[in-house]
């Protein structure tokens, strides 16, 4: 990424702004019991596990492990797939002759350049409960389990790694597929289907993934972002498309300083108020920073609201970029801001300094995997955060992210800009 000098920021000075903080009623208690359907499902799964669960303690001898057929199951969306990259690349380095298959949802495909060189084969599985839109019913979920276990059984895998700690469906799929070694985490609904279960820990998701692959090989790891960084492979075409887009918008080749605001997230409860992002965009533009507001096609109303600043330096790109072109734009940017989301983790992988907003999600588990000096976390001050719950029934009453003050976000943005360009 091109580094600008201090002269790029002639207007960037400390300014005092009024920052009214709306007050929201507190949400339901985070300690509330799971819904009745979830309790019934858990009871059924535990009952089945007592009858058909796996034997514990199986390991692969070194000579077989070196050429093993390994299935890695990760059902999640973009940010979680990016978090898997360091572990896959480490495993490939450790077992260069092994055949590594990644099982992921079709929705995760845009993140695959972040896993380059980490796997040999991709199998797209429509994991129930992770599809967006209409959810699969109970019968459909069990039918999918039976249907997908047969082709996986035919591939005769030696080991399966369940990379999401609570993914009982994936662990059960590996059991039905006859995989002899099934390694995952010791959570109540998942552990009965595993042959080896690691104790869960309150650690970053990247560290958990690295610990999982290390356990398969018997190695010891000390995960850290410097040694095991996030990556996203950018093609010359992606960079060229981003550069052309920037030139078409601003009419110059060297667009610095440049900020990207990505206000959207996969869960509505993570969102900050559009009016607050618009105020940040206005202040950046007033400071001489050009601003791109990005988002997917379904986020166009949000990006339009954020970019509604009377300045030619704040541009709405909602619905106008692919994930790979977004990565290239982030790579060209000097700072990226947004709530906890896949695109913010993409910015970290692209090497861009970031400001992340957190409320219900836990930054210890899902924070930016990078230098904390370059990647700033702003967490809600609510005493119940992080609760880890994203499906509150009364969303308008839930303001743990929305209560984060504009001034707090602005100070972090100023700090990053002045730190790197003064």
Topology:
Elements: H1 36-52, H2 62-65, E1 69-73, H3 78-94, E2 99-104, E3 121-124, H4 138-154, E4 159-162, H5 168-176, E5 181-185, E6 196-198, H6 205-217, H7 236-250, E7 258-261, H8 274-286, E8 290-293, H9 300-306, E9 314-316, H10 323-332, E10 335-339, H11 342-349, E11 354-358, H12 363-366, E12 375-379, H13 406-421
Parallel strand pairs: 1-2, 1-4, 2-3, 4-5, 5-6, 7-8, 7-10, 8-9, 10-11, 11-12
Helix pairs in contact: 3-6, 3-11, 4-5, 7-10, 8-9
Structural features, described:
It is a single chain. The protein is of the alpha/beta class and 422 residues long. It has two domains: 48-217, Glycogen Phosphorylase B (Rossmann fold); 232-421, 3-Layer(aba) Sandwich (Rossmann fold). It is built from 13 helices and twelve strands. It has helices at 36-52, 62-65, 78-94, 138-154, 168-176, 205-217, 236-250, 274-286, 300-306, 323-332, 342-349, 363-366, 406-421; strands at residues 69-73, 99-104, 121-124, 159-162, 181-185, 196-198, 258-261, 290-293, 314-316, 335-339, 354-358, 375-379. Helix 12 links the parallel strand 11 and strand 12 (375-379). Helix 3 runs parallel beside helix 6 (205-217). The chain starts with 35 loop residues before the first helix and ends with a helix.
């Amino acid at each position: 990424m091109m580094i600008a000098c201090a002269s790029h920021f002639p207007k960037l000075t400390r300014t005092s702004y009024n920052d009214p903080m709306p007050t929201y009623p507190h949400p339901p208690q985070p300690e509330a019991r799971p819904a009745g359907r979830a309790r019934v499902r858990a009871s059924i799964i535990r009952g089945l596990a007592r009858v058909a669960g796996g034997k514990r303690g199986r390991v692969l001898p070194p000579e077989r492990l070196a050429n093993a057929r390994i299935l890695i199951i990760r059902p999640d969306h973009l940010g979680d797939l990016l978090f898997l990259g360091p572990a896959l690349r480490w495993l490939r380095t450790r077992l260069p002759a092994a055949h590594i298959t990644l099982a992921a949802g079709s929705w995760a495909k845009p993140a695959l350049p972040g896993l380059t060189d980490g796997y040999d084969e991709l199998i797209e599985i429509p994991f129930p409960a992770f599809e967006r839109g209409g959810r699969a019913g109970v019968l459909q979920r069990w039918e999918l389990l039976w249907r997908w276990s047969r082709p996986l059984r035919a591939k005769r895998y030696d080991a399966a790694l369940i990379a999401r700690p609570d993914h009982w469906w994936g662990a059960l799929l590996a059991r039905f597929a006859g995989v002899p070694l099934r390694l995952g985490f010791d959570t109540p609904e998942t552990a009965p289907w595993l042959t080896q279960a690691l104790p869960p820990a309150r650690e970053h998701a990247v560290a958990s993934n690295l610990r999982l692959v290390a356990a398969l090989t018997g190695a010891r790891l000390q995960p850290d972002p410097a040694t095991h960084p996030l990556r996203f492979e950018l093609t010359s075409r992606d960079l060229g498309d981003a550069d052309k887009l920037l030139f078409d918008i601003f009419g110059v080749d060297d667009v610095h300083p440049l900020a990207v605001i990505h206000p959207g997230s996969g869960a509505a409860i993570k969102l900050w108020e559009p009016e607050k992002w618009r105020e940040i965009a206005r202040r950046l533009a007033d400071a001489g920073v050009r601003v791109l507001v990005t988002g997917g096609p379904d986020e166009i109303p949000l990006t339009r609201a954020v970019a509604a600043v009377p300045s030619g330096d704040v541009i709405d790109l909602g619905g106008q970029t692919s994930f790979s072109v977004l990565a290239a734009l982030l790579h060209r940017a000097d700072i990226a801001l947004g709530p906890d989301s896949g695109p913010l983790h993409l910015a970290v992988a692209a090497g861009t300094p970031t400001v992340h907003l957190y409320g219900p999600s836990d930054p210890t588990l899902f924070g930016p995997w990078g230098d904390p000096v370059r990647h700033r976390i702003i967490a809600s001050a609510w005493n119940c955060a992080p609760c880890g719950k994203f499906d509150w029934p009364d969303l308008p009453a839930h303001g743990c992210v929305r209560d984060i003050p504009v001034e707090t976000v602005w100070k972090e943005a100023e700090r990053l800009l002045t730190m790197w360009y003064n």
